Amino acid sequence: MRCPYCNSSESQVKDSRPNEEDATIRRRRVCNDCGAKFTTLERVQLRDLMVRKSNGILQPFDREKLARSVKIACRKRDISDDRVDKFITSIHRRLEAENTDDIISSETIGQMVSESLLHLDPIAFVRFASVYRKFSKLADFKKIINQVPEAEEGAKVCELPKKYKNSLF
Predict the structure, then answer these.
(1) Chain centre distance of CA 167
(2) Extended strands (E) in the chain
(3) What CA–CA distance (Å, rounded) separates 56 from 54?
(4) Pseudo-torsion of CA 53, 58, 59, 60, nearest 10°?
(5) Is residue 54 helix, strand or coil?
(6) How far is Cα 27 from Cα 154, in angstroms, rounded to an integer?
(7) Quick one: which of 73, 66, 51 has its CA closest to 120?
(8) What SS3 state is found at 105?
(9) In what order do the strands lie in the sheet with 24-31?
(10) pLDDT mean over 123-127
(11) What pLDDT, in 10s, does the model give residues 65-82?
């Protein structure tokens, strides 16, 4: 493992800890050359997945890129970072397990994330879908919102104060 400070390839592991699900291992390291301390996170990877973009270009699957887009969709929602990380891990594992080919279309990934987000948080689903499906008009939002299941009986629904009910802001 290369030191992020001096780029040396010589470091020692001082401490290793698996996370609670044993999906990753956190290692505390010390560089033999400069003495800097840093942490690495190791994750099991079953195989190298490639993503075929809509324009035909192949790119390596980037878990962090997926995590960024899901975190943006979930921003300011009542969803913990830990829950988002578990969500990303489950999507990644499904992609590795369900696809026999190492090449996955970006459309497949987008559909899988959309369907899963719908169950996690409907607002995050609409946010993600608006970017993934490149909404360009208000009708696109109306159409996707109509696909979201209604709130269950007894669930709290956010209601605008009376003074805002008939205004557009």
Answers:
(1) 36
(2) 11-18, 24-31, 37-43, 50-52, 58-60, 103-105
(3) 5
(4) 120
(5) coil
(6) 46
(7) 73
(8) strand
(9) 11-18, 24-31, 37-43
(10) 91
(11) 999 999 999 999 988 888
